[in-house]
Specification:
142 residues; mainly beta; Immunoglobulin-like; 1 helix; rod-shaped
Length: 142
Amino acid sequence: MSLIPRGSFFDSDRFVDDFWAPLRREGEATSAFFAPRVDIKDKDDHFEITAELPGVAKDDIHLTLADGVLTLEAETRQEDKEEKDGKIIRQERRYGKLMRSFNLGSEVHEEDISADFKDGVLTLKAPKRAEPALTTRRISVN
């Protein structure tokens, strides 16, 4: 399993977007995805990926597996509300699509990946493939 998520540190487009983010006007929409924070643990018999998804409903989470790449997608929506007593000075909560992908490689048993969602935290368990047992055999010399 690749411990460096796809589109993370080396994503130059995201770096530029994040650099200019403070200058965006209030209410300006952006179509870019943002990535949830994750923890990846290497357990004895499986890998465990835990992702923070605050404000996301279970029905809005979509997990796909294609060509050894596990992709997590979700969407959060902002309620349309009218401000009568003032305007928003700062809004730090994010709304929109989020996406994160992981290259599982060949050491994961893809058919048995499971997911659980509780209290805004998604936990994925990816069982490791059993390593073939090394057998030693004595070869007689004739």
